[in-house]
Specification:
- Keywords: ATP-binding, Nucleotide-binding, Transport.
- GO terms for molecular function: ATP binding.
- The chain is α/β, with parallel strands linked by helices and 311 residues long.
- The protein contains eleven helices and 14 strands.
- The chain folds into two domains: 218 residues, Rossmann fold; 71 residues, no CATH class.
- It is 31% helix and 27% strand.
- The structure holds adenosine-5'-diphosphate and magnesium ion.
Length: 311
């Protein structure tokens, strides 16, 4: 079990994370927050690479600082950016890392081949990495994090650069891995974690805003998410008044998905089940109530009457 106890991290005077308390058992944990929220900082602390400014992190009851090498033996880590020599093949790169981790040559070779197969790089394992797509490089990164069959696997934005097919394959690998180890991954893409993560952690303002099962997180907006059709003339006023989660232009107005904090709904509003994406957009909306910019696109493919996409 991995425990974060009142851990803070400052950069100079800037408090990046403040007094976090977290517990991790076997399973998949999705650290979900926009850029700059402190995901990498937390993951580096959990990997024992960055000491907390205050507080402590314990693995099976012992501070990471004391475990040092013993913890590294149990840890797999994919940094947000990882270095490799472009002229290397994935097989050579993996074998090199395995040697550093103290594996013998035969074990290193077998394990490297097995893992490269697992991330669907079996065919490409003897090709130079400089010919690889971003998604292929990222898959090498995921494979190397698994070399020592880690008990604690920490992946910092592992799906960056993966295409939809690669993402799907990665999600099934995740659920498999999470059955008998702690897997913690960061992402700002909701779909990466909504089906695969046992628990979601939302960071906000340097603190843990929520840590719960995906269903539990969705309950935060239960009974407050609606959809309705708004005519052109009222659209701007509506946007001012409600937190818009998504909108889609249609020939005769706008289809709006929004949050209402009011007790009673208007008859023309349809109550809908909140999704994890709704919660993400709402929690991280800005002071004017606007959703994070990157998320302003229609939730569903627009019909033939499509006119505009977003504000
Ligand atoms: N080495 C550093 N020196 C100074 N500030 C940093 C450093 N690393 C991160 N920060 C700051 O800490 C905050 C959290 O960053 P980070 O952990 O990288 O967030 P995320 O991974 O969620 O994008 C940001 O405001 C960032 O600018
Ligand atoms: Mg980061």
């Amino acid at each position: 079990m991995l425990i974060v106890r009142a851990a803070s991290r400052r950069y100079g005077d800037d408090p990046a994370l403040e007094r976090l308390d977290l517990e991790f058992q076997n399973g998949v944990y999705g650290l979900l927050a926009p850029n700059g929220a402190g995901k990498t900082t937390l993951l580096k602390m959990l990997a024992g690479l960055l000491p907390p400014s205050e507080g402590e992190i314990l693995y099976d009851g012992e501070p990471l600082a004391d475990l040092d090498e013993k913890y590294r033996m149990k840890l797999g880590y994919l940094p947000q950016r990882f270095g490799y020599y472009p002229g290397d093949t994935p097989l050579k790169y993996m074998q090199y890392l395995a040697a550093i981790k103290g594996m013998n040559r035969k074990e290193a070779s077998e394990r490297s081949e097995l893992l490269l197969d697992a991330v669907a790089l079996g065919e490409a394992k003897r090709r130079k990495m400089k010919t690889f797509s971003g998604g292929m490089i990222q898959r090498v990164g995921i494979a190397q994090a698994l070399l020592n069959d880690p008990r604690v696997l920490i992946l910092d934005e592992p799906t960056a650069g993966l295409d939809p097919k690669e993402r799907g394959r990665f999600r099934s690998l995740l659920t498999q891995l999470g059955r008998d180890r702690i897997v913690i991954l960061s992402t700002h893409v909701v779909s990466d974690v909504e089906s695969a993560a046992n628990e979601i952690i939302l960071l906000k303002d340097g603190r843990v805003f929520a840590k719960d099962k995906p269903e539990g997180i969705c309950l935060m907006l239960a009974g407050r998410v609606y959809e309705t059709k708004i005519g052109d003339a009222e659209a701007d006023a509506f946007r001012e008044r409600y937190a818009i989660l998504a909108e889609r232009g249609e020939p005769d107005g706008w289809r709006m998905r929004f949050v209402s904090e009011a007790e009673s709904a208007l008859p023309q509003w349809q109550a809908v089940q909140p999704t994890l994406e709704d919660v993400f957009l709402y929690v991280y909306r800005d002071a004017e109530g606007r959703a994070p910019e990157r998320m302003l696109f229609p939730r569903e493919p627009a019909g033939s009457g499509k006119r505009g996409e977003s504000v």
